[in-house]
# Entry
Amino acid sequence: MSYTTLVIMAAGMGSRFGGGIKQLEPVGPNGEIIMDYSIYDAIDAGFNKVVFIIRKDLEKDFKEIIGKRIEKQLKVEYVFQNSDTLPEGFSTQEGRTKPWGTGHAVYCCKDIVKEPFAVINADDYYGKEAFKLLYNFLNSDIQDPYVYCMAGFVLGNTLSENGAVTRGLCKTDNDGWLIDVVETFGIVKEGDHAKAKGEDGTDKVVELNSTVSMNMWGFKPTVFDELEKGFIEFLSELSPDDIKKEYLLPEVIGRLVNEKIAKVKVLKTNDRWFGVTYKEDKDSVVKSIRSLIESGAYPSRNKE
# Structure
């Protein structure tokens, strides 16, 4: 059987969510979590395998809350993002407690994922359209193993009412191929536009219709070799004091694009993102899910 896999990054610490495990917070009427809806949409689009990237200490809770239930619907595998999962010749920094980042999270899947795959965050709701766009692209007749894709969201559809967010602002050419992803911090809505913090600390205007990355990517297995090469370089340049520095997926892909190693097609979606970046976001997410159920987008109870 051939697979198209959904990789879900669920190893985050949830620090901005008050220290709780935000990926496992119920938001649906029957205790469903955001991942339930992402997996539902992924299955509907055609994905037939899911890989959860989690922390080892979350394994028992994770399997009880979602894993055992999802195993009844499609093939499920687990990857643990451990700080000592490193290329040969490297060891974990003394004093490091923070995970190595999203680039490392996907790197940890290298021995499990051998097929085209999508990557998402566990605590983000992406909408149905984005999964269909990624699935169709990953299963298109494009033969080049270094042609990837990403879902491009409208900035105005991805902002939180409860605080500033970080988004990857995308630059594309006229044909929709990615030129660059610029990680932009402190973005908040202000009237008919948004503002963000520039590198010099001053505010800068950002248009609400800007295309942004929400860490929803489509890859082929060639990406693992590139992640390892980049990680070796990252680790080689790391000073002993950089115990919080992370190896971030958008930065890795941006480098591959800039060096013309890979091409990334930006697949634009108008679906509205929501998630629990902040604890105060939960009420809004619950209301949004309820509205989607009432509209018929989801059943009132997920499959058992």
